[in-house]
Amino acid sequence: METASVARALELSGPLRDLLPPVDFCCAYGSTLLHARPDGTSMVDYILGVNDPLQWHSENMERNPSHYSSWMARLGPDAVTWLADRVGVGVYFNPFVEWRDKRIKYGVVGMRDLAMDVLGWDRFYLSGRLQKPVHVLVDNSDIRKVNTVNLKMATSASLLLLPEEFTEVKKIVEGSFQPFQLMYRPMLQQYISEGILKISTHGQRKAFKQDCGVSATNELFSSLPWTIQRKMQGRFASDGQEILTRAVASSKDMAATCVRKSLRRQDMYRIERAGSWLQETLETRYSRAF
């Protein structure tokens, strides 16, 4: 298994060695990586983190001008970075790139923007991507360690959105159970040890019950990114100045409503298209982790 994993990593790293300028972070992702027998015609997707997107695109346009649309290649790297920051989600994608006998797509993002989204859910795009299984190929800035914070926030958000009691769900994406289990087991074990989450077995199914009291709710809520917590932050005046107080949720329903509204503002189209991503998809992934 380890030999196969190393061989797979070498295969996935091919474009980094032979095609693209150096990067500080790279992960491959997508359904192709979750299946033992992927379709040979499938596209492999990459997220590339670089310290200076303008410089990186300048070099890449010299190496690989065909990766960019004709009008973007004429406008140059300044237009690429402007489009990523002002119109996109901080990421500029080059899709349908032919490399040897494969087709790849890669998105380029600045390392600062990557870290801010992972830790703060500013745009909830890269953070959402890294809440799912990926194959990290380059990690000069230890993004994997930073992402453990993201995974804990995702676990906390999903528990706040789930009912007090829930059971395993059968709608599991084929081939994805083990990677998700490895990702989220530590967070769930922590909440079990703290008494926030309890698991019982009924026949072949597992049932989950969570503590919905104010103390447990605020333990979960305090793990969420500041972009969500500040929606419920208290304010009071002192000497003519407004002072922010610690965000406190008076009930689980209030905390869940805050989470739901905050995420819909940042990523409405993805959540609605998925049928409430956190309530349904995260439930599917997290409730099978034991």
Widest beta sheet: strand line-up: 3-4-2-1-5
Radius of gyration: 21 Å
Number of strands: 10
Secondary-structure element pattern, one letter each? HHEEHHHEEHHEHEHEEHHEEHH
| CATH class bucket of the largest domain | Alpha Beta
* Portion in beta strands: 15-25%
The assigned structural class equals alpha+beta
| Percent of residues in helices | 40-55%
End-to-end CA span: 22 Å
Task: Give the oligomeric state.
Answer: single chain
CATH topology of the largest domain: Beta Polymerase, domain 2
Poorly predicted parts: 170-174, 268-290
The domain count comes to: 2
Biggest beta sheet attributes: 5 strands, mixed
Identify the overall geometry. globular
CATH architecture of the largest domain: 2-Layer Sandwich
Individual helix count: 13
User: How would you state the average pLDDT, rounded?
Assistant: 81
Descriptive key words:
290 residues; alpha+beta; Beta Polymerase, domain 2; 3-stranded antiparallel sheet; 47% helix
Account of the 3D structure:
It is a single chain. The chain has about 290 residues and is an alpha+beta fold. It has two domains: about 1-140, Beta Polymerase, domain 2; about 150-280, no CATH class. The protein contains 13 helices and ten strands. It has helices at about 1-10, 15-20, 55-65, 70-75, 75-85, 110-120, 125-130, 145-160, 175-195, 215-220, 225-230, 250-275, 275-285, and strands spanning about 25-30, 45-50, 90-100, 100-110, 135-140, 165, 195-200, 205-210, 235-240, 240-245. The strands form three sheets. The chain has a five-stranded mixed sheet with strand order 3-4-2-1-5. A hairpin with a 2-residue loop joins strand 9 (about 235-240) and strand 10. Helix 3 (about 55-65) crosses helix 5. The longest helix is centred in the last third of the chain and has 22 residues, at about 250-275. The protein is globular and about 60 Å long. The chain starts with a helix and ends with a helix.
